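2024-03-11 09:14:02 INFO receiving multi-entity request
2024-03-11 09:14:02 INFO entity count = two
2024-03-11 09:14:03 INFO echoing inputs for audit
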Amino acid sequence: MRTSLKTNTLRSLLAIGSMALACLGVAAENPHDPYENFNRTMYTVNKTLDTYVTRPLAQAYDASVPLPAKAGAGNFFGNLGEAWVGANSLMQGKPGDAGDSLARMLVNSTVGIFGLFDVASELGIERHNEDLGQTFAVWGAKESNYVFLPLIGPRTVRDTAGWAIEFFTDPLMGIKNNHTRYSAVAVRFVDLRAGLLPADKIVEEAAIDEYAYVRDAYLQRRQNLIYDGRPPRFDD
Amino acid sequence: MTESTTMISRFLVFFSACLLALNVAAAEAPDALVKRVSEDVLEIVKQDHGIRNGDIKKITALVDAKVLPHFDFQRMTALAVGRDWRAANAEQKKRLTEEFKALLVRTYANAVTSYSNQKLVVKPLKMKTGETEVLVRSEIQQPGAQPVQLDYWLEQQGDAWKVFDVVVAGISLVTNYREQFAKEVRDNGIDGLIATLAAKNKSLETSAAAKTARK
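2024-03-11 09:21:47 INFO inference complete, emitting structure
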């Protein structure tokens, strides 16, 4: 069952990938965004989906779940990802950061009761943000083309590759019971979207062209993460 | 009065003048400035009911009074417009700055009120001597989620430090407009960009007014 789920996901990713390629050849404004027409369509699809399904769900979650429970959920999912963050720090040659992640996982899984409480942050052990896409970048993979997919959101081809591989290291995918696995993935997704609710209004009011604003924000943020918060400044 | 007491009092006057000068030269450090201003703003946001509920007029007034004096909007606008800035004439530059300022104040106000319940920590800055551009970093800590980075780029101008870029979660509120602005200038020229910005500000104002009226 698990393998077939994975092959199906891979198959649909490949299908979407070739659809994206089919849109090549359109004159592009942004050098990182050659599939702009395709991406804009997907952005609209996602926006509609978000307006009628995802955002209302996230809003309901945000309004009905009390803060301690939300914080617990966020901490829990964060803790599950900690080992992978540490592994990526190691692959990027940052053993000190990897040590932080390991320490965080040990402290939060025990004193923090299965990761529900982020005791490590209170102790001042820094939380890092790493993933395979960033590791690829550190290894020399160039900033690749931008792709926007419904539900998955903004990504680059490089980050999508990292993300697809990460699917196999995702602890939630290791849950045997189908019902529990789907529920866990859904809660994590809604929790993630709820965390972005404050950004909605900011983007809507700030953007001249919302699609371009989100794209450029995503590309900037990735650049910032790859340089661990201190990218070079390009002032013109 | 003897001659020596006159001398002494003259010396005292001179000495206190020196102290005063010294005081001005040692202007507030950039990280101290960011810390003071953000704490001020967050404190007011926490206490003011209207601001917390998104009363945009009140928020803008607050940002105007507390934050704007420390921002260099001309430089911010130049950064956002990029290469086309040099092609603009003085009048266009003035109007671009005005419109961009209005948009940015609103964005900044939205960001501040969205995260007002969280804890803000300004990180101490290790400044090298003679540095005139610095990055002051802070983070908004929220339960259950990764802290949001909120960074300010400041430039020394005379005795004061002025902010010329605000970076939220790695995204510059200023340079994130580059592509959009460049496209607008390519399609409709600098005046086209000014018109687009003015229209955007106007529609935001109208929808905010409609919202207040409904309440």
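2024-03-11 09:21:48 INFO post-check: The mean pLDDT of chain A is 86.
2024-03-11 09:21:48 INFO post-check: The first helix of chain A runs from residue 2 to 22.
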